[in-house]
Amino acid sequence: MLQIAFLIGVAAQASGQGIPRPDVPDKIKVPAGEEIVLQVHAAGSQIYGCQSGAAGKLAWTLKAPEAELRDQQGALIGWHYAGPTWKDNDGSEVKGKAVGQVDSPDSDSIPWLLVTITGHSGNGVLSRVTMVQRIHTKGGLPPPAADCNTSKQNFEAKSRYTADYYFYAPAK
After folding, report:
1. What are phi and psi of 78, to 5 degrees?
2. How many Cβ atoms sit within 10 Å of the Cβ of residue 80?
3. CB of 135 within 8 A of CB of 163?
4. Which of these, 2, 6, 66, 103, has the minimum number of CB atoms within 10 Å of its CB?
5. What is the pLDDT of residues 89-98, one digit of tens each?
6. Beta strands of the chain (E only): which ranges?
7. What is the rounded average pLDDT of the residues 38-66?
8. Which pTM does this prediction carry?
């Protein structure tokens, strides 16, 4: 009997069911009726370009993330890249756009985000996902503004970061 209870717990954790919602500010909370279907840890880079921005002034602009996604046991299960896009090894993929943002409690880190999904492809764990939260960020900020000057125009810089991503879908 104990083995059956353990296996049920493992299956629930693998499918995302039973993962408690993280405590986040209201601005990036996911609406009621959504459940966590996947939780991953990302490690990689935020890629910035030194480009002409508003009024022709040079500034670091986010080009794309580039990160590995790992499950709770540390196994590589997918990738996060431009779009923003998240792709699981099962072939399912989602693209989204940020709809909420709060500063990270760590002032040396990129903001926490709420992302709404704008596109799906493939069948798998991400097929039903409607929202993603990025929290627990460490690092990822652009280089100092003064480092983006005419000698570095069109130069790319990678800033290491880690974060936790929570993927939500309508409750079954």
Report:
1. 175, -170
2. 23
3. yes
4. 2
5. 999 999 999 9
6. 34-52, 58-70, 76-81, 85-88, 93-102, 112-121, 131-139, 156-170
7. 94
8. 0.88
